[in-house]
Amino acid sequence: MKVIAFVGSPRRNGNCANLVSAILEGVEGSGAEIKIHFLGAKNIKGCTGCYHCEKANECIITDDDMQEIYADMESSDAYVFASPVYFDHVTAQFKLFVDRIFPYYHAKPFKGRKAVFALTYEEDNDEIYGEVVDWFTGMIDACHGIKVVDSLKVHGVVKQPVKDNPALLSRAEDIGRALVQP
Ligand SMILES: Cc1cc2nc3c(=O)[nH]c(=O)nc-3n(C[C@H](O)[C@H](O)[C@H](O)COP(=O)(O)O)c2cc1C
After folding, report:
1. How close is the Cα of 134 to the center of ligand 1, in Å?
2. By the 8 A CB rule, do 40 and 9 touch?
3. What phi and psi, each to the nearest 5 degrees, are found at residue 169?
4. Cα 120-71-106 angle, rounded to 5 deg
5. pLDDT of 12 above 90
6. Which of 119, 131, 144, 157 has its CA 20 to 30 A from that of 138?
7. DSSP states of 15-67 as a string?
8. Which of 122, 124, 155 to mutate to test ligand 1, by most ligand atoms within 8 A of the CB atom?
9. In angstroms, what is the span from residue 88 Cα to ligand 1's centroid?
10. How many angstroms is it from 1 CA to the middle of ligand 1?
């Protein structure tokens, strides 16, 4: 069993990173192999909109860090996706990644695989940004057949950073444990 995490924040020790670490602690308890991609540190070129992938099932861009990401996505059994909210949506780094997995859209090789999605934001209001979680959950299922089995929408992370929220970290670990249950 291999689980791969994608962190859409450029901050390696930020809220998303801490949340993902806790989720992966839960995953690791089962003996699963884990790996994290910090998307902010990657060279990911933007989709050119050429539609080459529609015919070829592979991207025409071959000289960036998506090559390693494609290989890891293919060899993983489950996924952890996380992004902060930047101006009411996921970060640009995270969206670049989403656009570049278009080559899998038709063949749907990840169909039936499970995932969790985590979204963090500053506004101290837990009633907003549900539409961002719904967008990701719906898109990744409709376009790639990946089922988001649980999600975390964490508000007020400047007032109370994730690392100072033991109840949340414990919940994140539980979510990680559940992700790798058969
Ligand atoms: C460019 C930028 C835009 C942001 N936009 C929003 C926003 O629209 N709403 C919000 O609640 N927080 C916003 N934030 C705050 C981040 O969502 C918050 O600090 C985030 O959880 C940081 O995650 P990280 O610690 O993993 O980097 C923004 C932060 C930055 C840097």
Report:
1. 18
2. yes
3. -65, -35
4. 85
5. yes
6. 157
7. HHHHHHHHHHHHHHTTT-EEEEEEGGGS--PPP----HHHHHSS-S--SSTHH
8. 122
9. 9
10. 32
Residue ranges covered by each domain of the chain: 2-179
**What's the rounded mean pLDDT across residues 154-166?**
98
Q: What are phi and psi of 84, to 5 degrees?
A: -75, 165
DSSP annotation of 160: S
Atom 28 of ligand 1, nearest CA residue:
86
d(CA 52, CA 8) in angstroms, rounded, equals: 26
**CA neighbor of 73 nearest in space, from 44, 109, 41, 30:** 109
Question: What is the percent of the chain where pLDDT is above 90?
Answer: 99
Do 132 and 89 form a contact (C-beta atoms < 8 A)?
yes
Q: Look up residue 54 and give its amino acid.
A: E
Q: Is 69 helix (H, G, I), strand (E, B) or coil?
A: helix
Closest C-alpha to 95, from 105, 86, 104, 108: 86
What does the pLDDT look like over 57-116, one tens digit per residue?
A: 999 999 999 999 999 999 999 999 999 999 999 999 999 999 999 999 999 999 999 999
For the record, the structure tokens of 23 come out as: 């989720």
